[in-house]
Write a structure and sequence with these properties.
globular; 4-stranded antiparallel sheet; mainly beta; 53% strand; single chain; 0% helix; 7-stranded mixed sheet; 128 residues
Length: 128
């Protein structure tokens, strides 16, 4: 089993930045990809970005050029650096992990059902 704990959410003004962290513990050797998702009330969980063990990354079009996903393997920690935040980025952000790679030929596995392990989420609120 793998446990994921997110941190770093909060309130930010539009145009500002924030960095989310996700600490992984347990059977981390089994993980080959990690991803960030977000969800707002009444909507499906949306894939934001993913990174696989080979350090390849992929992003949703809505965040490309503004968000950067990275990981520190020594610390078993995943990050999401979010710049130039917009009110529409307001959401509950989740960290996810899976034994399979996330990147494929036309993007990344962005359906929530594709990921086995989940954190509890951290709220990001962007005000205009």
């Amino acid at each position: 089993q793998v446990q994921l704990v997110e941190s770093g959410g909060g309130s930010v003004q539009a145009g500002g930045s924030a960095r989310l962290s996700c600490a992984a513990s347990g059977s981390t050797y089994s993980i080959n990809s990690m991803a960030w998702f977000r969800q707002t009330p009444g909507k499906e969980r949306e894939g934001v970005a993913c990174i696989d063990r080979g350090r390849s990354t992929s992003y949703a079009d809505s965040v490309k050029g503004r968000f950067t996903i990275s990981q520190d393997n020594a610390k078993n920690t995943l990050y999401l650096q979010m710049n130039n935040l917009k009110p529409e980025d307001t959401a509950l952000y989740y960290c996810a992990a899976d034994p399979r790679p996330c990147i494929w030929s036309i993007g990344f596995r962005s359906a929530a059902a594709e990921y086995k392990y989940w954190g509890q989420g951290t709220q990001v609120t962007v005000s205009s």
